[in-house]
TrEMBL record:
This is ATP-dependent 6-phosphofructokinase. Homotetramer. Gene3D superfamilies: 3.40.50.450. One of its GO terms (biological process) is fructose 6-phosphate metabolic process. The lineage of its organism: Eukaryota, Viridiplantae, Streptophyta, Embryophyta, Tracheophyta. It comes from Crotalaria pallida.
Amino acid sequence: MASSDGDSKMKIVHGPAGYILEDVPHLTDYAPDLPTYPNPLRSNPAYSVVKQYFVHMDDTVPQKVVVHKDSPRGVHFRRAGPRQKVYFKSDDVRACIVTCGGLCPGLNTVIREIVCGLSYMYGVNKVLGIDGGYRGFYAKNTITLTPKVVNDIHKRGGTILGTSRGGHDTGKIVDSIQDRGINQVYIIGGDGTQRGAAVIYEEVKRRGLKVAIAGIPKTIDNDIPVIDKSFGFDTAVEEAQRAINAAHVEAESVENGIGVVKLMGRYCGFIAMYATLASRDVDCCLIPESPFFLEGKGGLFEFIQRRLKENGHMVIVIAEGAGQDLLTESLQDMHQKDASGNKLLQDVGLWISHRIKDHFAKTNKLAITLKYIDPTYMIRAIPSNASDNVYCTLLAQSAVHGAMAGYTGFTSGLVNGRQTYIPFNRITEKMNKVVITDRMWARLLSSTNQPSFLDPKDVEEASKVEQPPTQLLEGDNCKNLDEAHKEEPLTQLL
């Protein structure tokens, strides 16, 4: 295998048959003479019976899962897991954990499993929790974390460490890391948080510090690229169904009842789409990726009237970022952003509810009863379900294995069902979005029997886009961030 530095931000390894490994940094890249030590797991009774427990140094995971017989081997990522040798003595490790950005089911589970993984697998007993996000490094006290302290936190929603948006000051953060003697940093957060982690890694590298920086991607919207899904997403979809069921009960209990449910999805509609497919009670799903219009032939109002005449009731699910372009300029200011650099959205659920009511009141065609349900913060604040708890455990343990093995500047993530280490820039360069020309969106349209709301011009434009004979699963569902998101200054993180 020939190795080359194809990108200053990423280690690239080329091999035969079009094999490309997008590798993650290692402490020895800038500190080549570091000593190694036998992995403590060799003498751990829990793992001594496991055959081939240690991951081979050449193990990688392909990003493409669908290939043709003549396809190149394509992009791979380094497989996560424990290595035979580690670069930290257990007694020397002083780790810290920080959570940033909005809440998400599973945060406490990840915290718990990092602490327990470090303690039970590697004998590490010095773990600090950073209070209140990035600014907690220099503005707040730390919290001592032990297996006893975190024993049952996975049963609670939120994060015991507290969180915040913004507050990223690279110099102050790395100064704090250095002053406290921290040599492993676990950063849990979304794409902005991971961008911040990448900057911290670069500063740590510039100072030549033996500090491993490991990220764990967090977004309830499932908008992080490359990885199969983000933790908390399954829980969010499951909880969203409860709101949809409530809306359905309300709607079918009255004549011409309409239930409107607003779900998370600032830039993408994955929660709305999957909750709709799972519930089977939704008549119309509106997401940011699929434009819609209200009035005229083929519009939403016409569809609502037709569905009410057919069934006597209906349920509408709308993602929070859908239809923002339809709100009048007097209701929105596209230039306003929160501390994370995300544009502030108007309540599209409340707005569309008022528009539906006003339309049918003016036309006098139908007397409707509309109920609006917004479960957003209830969903974000619940503990993770069984599936997400298992996933959080794998993510946390993979991050611990990677840091102990000397890897740094990486995000732990699931790719094609395998735990991997992914370079920070691959996580932050694009945003995962629903592709409305993909089969999954077609499945939703056939399930709800709703119109696509695309006018003939939109259909014509979509047909002009050349599609590959097979959509090889290498980021086909990833779209570049919109211009407003791309232009965020680096200080607007999380």
